[in-house]
Amino acid sequence: MGDTKNLFNKEAVEKIQDMTGGGTMMMFCCDLDAKPFHATPMSTQKVEDNGVIWFFSSGNSERNKKLKKDSRVQLLITDDGSSNYMSIYGDAIFVHDQEKVKELWSPFVKAWFPEGPSDPNLTLLKFTPKEGFYWDTKHGKLVSMAKMMASVVTGKAMDDSVEGELKL
């Protein structure tokens, strides 16, 4: 079993930034009391130094309808290249700030919002994290796989991963 290292405030934000920088794909889960809850893939636009994560969202989406009733959100993040994982809980609110939209805009976003930053269907979501949990394999996917195979052969645990809570 790996080590436990809980991260607080600045360290927690740094961990979130490491895993969710601009353009990171993740599952954006809302309507958390429903079974099943609503989950859609989303891409981050920016992660602020205080941990706030910005998203663009379609104004007529089911996600937006659900967020208007309940702002609670769970983000589920996988970094396939390194086998690191994170779950972050917090609140998402709608922000009406055309300057922020222009700041976050990139040509890639035009695929979803063809009229550009002034597209009437574009909404800006501000996600504020409260807490979460992370799993970090430390050495990446290949080394982790090799250690798992060695564990199977030798019968000895070789897990040097780190996991812990994120508190903001």
Automatic annotation (TrEMBL):
<feature type="domain" description="General stress protein FMN-binding split barrel">
    <location>
        <begin position="11"/>
        <end position="159"/>
    </location>
</feature>
<dbReference type="InterPro" id="IPR038725">
    <property type="entry name" value="YdaG_split_barrel_FMN-bd"/>
</dbReference>
<dbReference type="InterPro" id="IPR052917">
    <property type="entry name" value="Stress-Dev_Protein"/>
</dbReference>
<dbReference type="Pfam" id="PF16242">
    <property type="entry name" value="Pyrid_ox_like"/>
</dbReference>
<protein>
    <recommendedName>
        <fullName>General stress protein FMN-binding split barrel domain-containing protein</fullName>
    </recommendedName>
</protein>
<dbReference type="InterPro" id="IPR012349">
    <property type="entry name" value="Split_barrel_FMN-bd"/>
</dbReference>
